[in-house]
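go over this:
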Amino acid sequence: MYATDKDSYVVQGWKIFADDLLMQLDMPDGHTAVEVPTELFEHLTKDGLPSGEIKDFSAPIMIRTDEGTCVVQGPVMRDPEALTQMRLPDYEDCIEVPRSAILNLLEEKSGPDHQRPA
């Protein structure tokens, strides 16, 4: 996970090939999804946030897996200069997600419509 100068984060993760996961997603053109360990969000503390603990599993997190990972969806990041620095392996991709969307994941929501998954 990388903070950008555009008030966003680039999330690097594994490309998704599993049909059962892909069938659960409704992705607009120019978007993709990557799978990342939930621990990845702990790195948000390096960007000055007090915690990287996900408290609300909602968009841009689309799926939380039984393996302790989550599927994050967003616009494909295709900045050639940034990609050269990242040297992505063939089995990984990255998306750009607004900082505000990531911050929303860290806030505790209350009420019947915002229950945390078990």
Remarks:
- The chain has three helices and six strands.
